[in-house]
Amino acid sequence: MMPTAVIVGAQWGDEGKGRVVDNYAEGADLVARFQGGNNAGHTVVVDGVRFAFHLIPTGIVRGKLSVIGNGVVVDPESLIQEIADLASKGVSVEGKLLISENAHLTMPYHRVLDKCQEQALGESAIGTTLRGIGPCYADKAARRGIRVGDLAEEEVFRAKLKSNLEEKNRLFEAIYHQPTLDFDETFERYRGYYRQIKGMITDTSVVVARALQAGQNVLFEGANGALLDLDFGTYPYATSSNPLAGAVCTGIGIGPKQIDRVIGVVKAYTSRVGSGPFPTELADAEHPEIVDRMRAVGHEYGVTTGRPRRCGWFDAVVVNKAARLNGLDGLAVTHLDVLDTFDRIPMCTAYRCQGKTIDYFPNSLARLTACEPVCEELPGWKHDITGARTMDGLPENARAYLRHIEELIGVPIVMVTVGPEREQVIRIEE
What we know:
By secondary structure, the protein is of the alpha/beta class. It contains 12 helices and 20 strands.
């Protein structure tokens, strides 16, 4: 493992980053999450025990020092519940979890506002997780957010909460006709959260800097996926942060020269939760058997929301864009075993758009919605690969499928997962 490595999603999220981060975390000294909120869901299965992460870095399962960076928005109630869930499964965060004092707090009014805004959009709704992530990042950009460190200074927190609640309650009354939120109840609740997490709050940028100066291995964990990026994703059907590798610099507090390696995680097919264009999507009504099979074998239901994911074939146009935006050095291909039973497996190599064949992902939603996938069909392997631990243990057709991904993307595959358990992985590098 390199001194620093970044793990990012290279599709629309839900690529299986938790599995990949867990694998790389074995050789890490510190694992740091750099963006997103508890709208993310990373899953690790160890000896049949399933761990679901939303805010805490996945490295905590291996006992690694785990950092929630300043680029993350933190819902303290969700965080405390996550800590309790880990404890119930024998994993303690004591002395192992640090939270940036500069990270912004997700507040109750953010969740209410998220729901109100989604309802107001009607059929044009984004399909958010309703966790208040977008409104929280909006307040951060508008310079009226409340940061984790503000909880330590009672009067500062009181003044900021009072100002924010007055503004949000006027919105709830006049625009959305919703009940207002009570100041005293919210204040006391968040002071209670602070008492539970205050020992974890620090300047995490200094912690990471010292780890790097000491020559330690540091792993940076992204949430969501490249095609959900606020600037380069399918806007407005995107998340409210930047899930690209470049966001490590601002979300943790390091310089770009300190990033040694970037690994993009992709499924052997494609999935998406929420609204927005999806060129290779297999419509439930038209392909119920294929979609049902993918969902059943791949557990294609959102870790955070439980919503069934939309599924489709592998899209090289999407992954090429992600490779370019992130400067990928390697690909981790997950869920290859989900394709075990298919006779033929289509793979999208280009789009047909307005009478032309294009090999790039359009920024215009109107153009993208008009795109149809141009696919090649590869032969399936019709073999259970869940026991494979080396490339030679895969059927030739499975290896050919992976080689074709490498050829189309121009990035070497460094890892393949062949089942949900921690040990069901093939490491190709080093």
